[in-house]
Recover the amino acids of this structure.
């Protein structure tokens, strides 16, 4: 297992695949253990690195992970199988905004896909949280660009950072959810329904 994880880290570095930072995945794995999380939905599998580590946090954790890029989906399937986790990790090849979910509930929903669509993911998937469940979002610092837009020259990058800033405001002003922000890795948040804390 350890060798498989190291191999995925090497593959991600070589092929420019963004994967979660060490501190952030350690934080999430501890959260899974401390809060008895059993069912996880991940938006953005890439090559399966975080899905595999989340599933390894405890023996009875199940993960459904969604990826829209075909090559990454194939790589993810391969890695999940190599780690012997194909019974506990379900990899879905689809755009998360087009996925149809019914009759399922998740204790933890991890948003780690297109940064410009965070609010849409949150609004779509919040209905699938179990009682007391949480939504975790990664990359809220976006490599230090959030809050430091004046130094950015690229228009596209600036617009992406604005979207992340808008998402942070959306979380801060959300009447339904209470969100805690953590200065871990590239910036993480954990949102829990206010009446279920
Ligand atoms: N969670 C992964 C990890 O830490 O190992 C990293 C995920 S990477 C930051 C983001 C992934 O989300 C990319 O592979 C991208 O193709 C995928 N993605 C972006 N928007 C998506 C969408 N709307 N639906 C499904 N996947 C999406």
């Amino acid at each position: 297992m350890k060798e498989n994880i190291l191999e995925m880290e090497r593959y991600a570095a070589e092929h420019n695949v963004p994967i979660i930072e060490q501190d952030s995945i350690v934080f999430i794995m501890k959260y899974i253990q401390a809060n008895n999380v059993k069912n996880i939905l991940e938006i953005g599998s890439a090559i399966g690195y975080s899905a595999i580590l989340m599933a390894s946090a405890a023996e009875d954790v199940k993960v459904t992970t969604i990826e829209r890029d075909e090559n990454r989906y194939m790589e993810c399937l391969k890695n999940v199988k190599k780690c012997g986790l194909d019974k506990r990790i379900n990899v879905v090849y689809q755009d998360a905004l087009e996925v149809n979910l019914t009759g399922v509930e998740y204790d933890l929903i991890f948003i780690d896909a297109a940064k410009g669509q965070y609010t849409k993911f949150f609004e779509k998937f919040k209905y699938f949280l179990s009682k007391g469940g949480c939504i975790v979002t990664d990359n809220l610092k976006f490599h230090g660009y959030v809050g430091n837009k004046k130094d950015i020259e690229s228009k596209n990058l600036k617009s992406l950072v604005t979207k992340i800033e808008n998402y942070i405001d959306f979380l801060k002003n959300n009447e339904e959810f209470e969100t805690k922000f953590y200065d871990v890795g590239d910036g993480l948040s954990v949102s829990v329904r206010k009446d279920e804390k």
